[in-house]
Amino acid sequence: MTTTDPAPTAGARRREQRAWYWYDWANSAYITSVGTVLIGPYLTSVAERDACGRVGTTDNPCDGNVELLGLGLSAGSLVFYIVTFATLLSAVVLPIVGAIADRVQSKRTLLARLAWTGAAAACCMFLVAGSNWQLGALLLVFANLCMGASLTVYDAILIDIAEPDERDHVSSRGWAFGYLGGGLLLLLNLGLVLGAGDLIGTDTAVRISLLSAGLWWGGFTFVAYRGLRDHPPADIPPGDSRLESGLIRRSFGQLWTTLRHLKNYPQTLLFLVAYLFYNDGIQTVIYSSSVYGQKELGFSQAVLIATILLVQFVAIAGALSFGQISKRIGARRTIMGGLVVWMVIVSAGYVMPAGEVVPFLLLATGIGIVMGGTQALSRSLYSQMIPPGREAEYFSLYQAAERGTSWLGTLVFGLVHQLTGSYRPAIFALIAFFLVGFVLLVRLDPRRAIREAGNAVPERV
């Protein structure tokens, strides 16, 4: 068991930072292999089997819909509705997690328990087979919820282990390390799908890959848990009424309390709204890429896995490069430049020719360059704008729009597909999210936001 040191040296901070990176390595396996590549097309195929298995004659043809609570939902849009539901649920649950995390003596223990619970749900995805999409939907909601909750705690730990001027660098290193870990497991899964698919069937190979992602997530979380230290909670802000009664009981009203408190920091609120929009666009592009590539462009599962693998390794260089650029022009301007590239990417995706691998790979390379950089710098910039003592509470709002938990984007993508029957207008519709985010960032004054939160202003923001 590690010990608590209220005033760690620079060397101790670096050791903790290296341990902190391991959780990015751990959870990225789930985000990449499950969330980005496998579960979307696989669960869609499972739902399509259910939709067409319920009808058996030409007089009652397959309409491509599955039934949920009496509603007929397009099997092709089902996954996006599931992710939307998971995120709406997280809007209630994550502030509770954040309130608890800001008061517990051991954030690393809370992080590990949430991660191990989510990893167990991911392992159980191995059981999703045949036409049983309902089990897959339930496990996906639960695993995504645990992922968001664990990342709420994980992001809050960044403030404990890095000084303000270190955070862009540390956050970018974490993202890069995560892409490396997620990419390595994806490479193994690629070998399994390509090499063993003919022997055990593609579905079985995919299910084994889902299991491997859960085991990877849970196993490497232990490395981070052992390397991190316990940091005592910060002094509770004056007038914090959560002290007046039990934490759990008070926490169920925490979403409203946090949002009401956030109005005292208008620039922080402005950034959070901007992030909500542009990150919803990023997450939906990431989440929908495999479905778009398979269903709209006609690529095989092997091509999609190889493409996402390319994105993973390009993103390592992208995240590190964005961290270096931010040292010269600041995080806000660097993020804005990334959003311009994102708008170009979704426009190119709309006109992407079906079956042409080279243009698809060029588009994937562009995604890899900007994907990690914009997200890593967003995390570090936001950490500067949070009032002391409320780190996890505020990051719970941030995580409601973070990796794999976007809801506006997935909802729009699913609705546009259902209305048009095509994924092309659905992918192009996401340009609005990047445009709104860019306009809001133009209005942001990050130095004012940091001062209003009561934090020291770093040299470059």
Automatic annotation (TrEMBL):
Record PROSITE patterns: MFS (PS50850)
Domain Major facilitator superfamily (MFS) profile, chain residue ranges per copy: 267-461
GO molecular function term, any single one: transmembrane transporter activity
InterPro entries the UniProt entry points to: Atg22-like, ATG22/LtaA_families, MFS_dom, MFS_trans_sf
Gene3D superfamilies to which the protein is assigned, alphabetical: MFS general substrate transporter like domains (1.20.1250.20)
Subcellular location: Cell membrane
GO cellular component: plasma membrane
PANTHER family for this protein: AUTOPHAGY-RELATED PROTEIN 22 (PTHR23519)
Name used for this protein in its record: MFS transporter
Lineage, broadest ranks: Bacteria, Bacillati, Actinomycetota, Actinomycetes, Propionibacteriales
